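We emphasize that the prediction below concerns an isolated chain of 260 residues; any contacts that depend on oligomerization or on bound cofactors are therefore not represented. The input was used exactly as deposited, without trimming of termini.
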Amino acid sequence: MEYATLPLICAAALIASALTFFSGFGLGTLLMPAFAIFFPVEQAIALTAVVHFLNGLFKVFLIGKHADWRIVAWFGGPAILFSLLGAWMLQLLTQYESLHEYVLRGHTFQITPVKLVVGLLLVVFTLLELLPVFQQLTFGPRVLPVGGALSGFFGGLSGHQGALRTAFLSKAGLSKEAFLGTGVVIACLIDISRLGVYSRRFLAQYEQLDYSLLAAAVVAAFLGSLIGNRYLKKMTLTALQRIVAASLFIFGVALAAGLV
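Result of the prediction step, given as a token string:
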């Protein structure tokens, strides 16, 4: 990769992080597509996990003291185990060759299992986070382990853990402070477990990888999140949310079709 692309990578990562404060979408949902423009999709997920973990760790120091450790164990235990399974599934998908090849305007495109699965999940979770029906969906405390398993699995597979975690924890009888503190602790635990799998597989695979470019992308994304958390007021702009949702939907379809 040419160093001329470094400003583009950093700008994309920083903008994606900043958009989380206005679009209503989480950091992982927005940052993964930004990274996937420049890096292989499985590596984009791993890079997003690094930024997500650093951002979450920062929040743990701020509000982690309010966490309800009973809920952390009840929800987070299955989440950790199933995040390992999801990360392993992602690793497995990268080992399969293309499912289909086609030519469009003189260019050959491949539909691979990992792009197909991650692209479709991006479409599904984009719709879920946008639809009012899902936003109002809640679950009782007795199914918290099921929620942890689902959140952890999809967190490990594609990085989509926030929407499910919120849906299951919102009716756990937690105060606002405990809800936020518990959520960030669980998110960090999921990130730690999946990063353990990613690091063994993907960092060893890319021996010729330019780690300075990767580091710059991670720093830019974390900086965007840090600046936004410090100076921007968290709010959702409906028009911007729809534009971002449409962009994510199109990107997900393009990724699944092998166009990205």
